[in-house]
Amino acid sequence: MKKGIFSIFLMAFVFVASCSDETTIFIDEQKSSIFEENDAITLAGSVNFENAGVLEIAIDENYTGKRTSKAVEEPAGNYPMTLIAQVNSPTYGPITSLTAAHVYVENDYAYVAYNTAGEDYSGAIDIINVADPNNPTVTSRVVYANADINSLQYSDGYLFAVGGMDATSSFTALSNSFITKIPVFSGVMDTDAGVIYGFQAGDNATDIAIDKNEVYVTSGKDGTITIYDTKDLSIKEEEAYADLRSLAFYDNKVAVLDAGMGIRILDDNLKLKKEIPVDTDFGLYTKRSIDFIEDKIILAEGAKGAGVYSHDSGTLLQYIPIITDPLNPPTGDMVTNAVAINKDMVLMANGGAGLSVSDDEGNTTEPYGVIQLEGSINYVQTVGDYAFAAAGQQGLQIIKLNRLSLSLAAQCSSLAEYNGSAKLVINEGEEYAFSGSKSFNFIKLEKESSLLICGTWTVSNDVDVKENALLEMNGSISVGKNKRRKEIKVEKGATFRVEGNVTIYGDLDLEDDAAIEFIGEDSVINIFGKVNMGNNVSVTGVFEDVQNKF
């Protein structure tokens, strides 16, 4: 598949008998081509907030049908997302072109795999602490001078990663495809504590999944699906296939994507149970994800978008097309690499066409728009209220989805859901209250008006609370972005009442006699600009000031 050198010099070998004589396991004691980055300043500098802020979503009218005449106000958007931070791709000496290829998130940590496009081999692994969503930190980094890392998963104190190397340049490796097991302590990889490797047939190990004490690994052209023991990476079962790209588990079944024929359903002993032919050109040496959604299988099918299949009948139920940002033409291959589901939201990693969002309406999925992120999106995972996108040379993008919580929805059930303009204006003396989850262009409250918003909201531009007006919010609101800072302005005698989370990529202006009131004990405010206060300003209540701006 590629040409490169993976020079590993060993002080000790461990050959493990198994059902395949094509696989060798060894202990890497000298680690001549593995480099740990331990410099705290370098790791801290990898987290970039430059593009943080409210994310705009471009609508592709060719697919959505949501054409709006110039005489009609643009409606408020349905997905109020914010970019929390970006983690830059690692560099190490001459290794400067690593691309984020895969991400796995569990508990407080995100684990990111990096590889190199083209003929050369080099890769890396990052571990990122995401326990504090406002302040992600890189806790550990390992760079491989002569190996790609394509996929990874954490389990029970160890990180298991798979990738590719040039076996002809190693006197121990019998194949390009490898798996490695690295000890991890409190978010830090320790290569001195004993790193072990295993090999299997195939050009490049493509995907990994762990089930209890077994690790399932697929490898590409002329490769296998192999079950390893998590303890010592000895092989328990192995079956050869023409070209496996990915795998997924569901209810004691294993689905694999074989680029030569389509979907194969195996039992947990790798015995074939069902085949679903897929007439798609998956390309050469490309990874495409496969996943179960209850009784359906969703498959990333490159230029076709994503295919949704019935597990029981094998019938193609729908293709979800690739949509594009009409104002920013794709800068690379328009191919669906991976798909992630969050409740009724479908996220598609579409390479050069970016990260798209679609509405899952049960029987069908309707495209909505393209999230305006930098980079070619190779993979996406969603956990809770966050999405993590592996964005090629732009590294990892951490996105807050700002989904409306069930508890908050119940609390606001008596309020009407907002379905109006993206430009929200409350006229002088008027009072309104809304629930929902929307993205706005701006919010303006005229003099002596009142607005209660209950839910999750983003605002691309300013929020202006005029004299003696009242803005109350329960939930979360984010304003502006770090590269184009905006503000919340509370004018003379006006009040901003907060119960929840406020993020301002810009300033909070509190003019003379203005007030900001925090209700309850759990409110949080995160201000990237300044707090400007006039005379007789009132700040009351209990709150967390993330960046100590008050």
Features:
eight-stranded parallel sheet; disordered N terminus; seven-stranded antiparallel sheet; single chain; 3% helix; 550 residues; 3 helices; mainly beta; 47 strands
Overall pLDDT? 87
What's the shape? globular
**What would you call the structural class?**
mainly beta
Please report which band the strand proportion falls in: under 5%, 5-15%, 15-25%, 25-35%, 35-45% or over 45%. Answer: over 45%
The helix content is: under 10%
Major β-sheet, in short? 8 strands, parallel
**Between the first and last Cα atoms, what is the distance in angstroms?**
57 Å
Radius of gyration: 25 Å
DSSP strand tally: 47
pLDDT < 50 runs, ≥5 residues: 1-30, 67-71
Number of H/I helices: 3
Q: Summary?
A:
This protein has 550 residues and is an all-beta fold. Strands 35, 37, 39, 41, 43, 44, 46 and 47 form an 8-stranded parallel β-sheet that branches. The protein has a 7-stranded antiparallel β-sheet with strand order 16-17-18-19-20-21-22, with no helix packed on it. Strands 1, 11, 12, 13, 14 and 15 form a 6-stranded antiparallel β-sheet that branches.
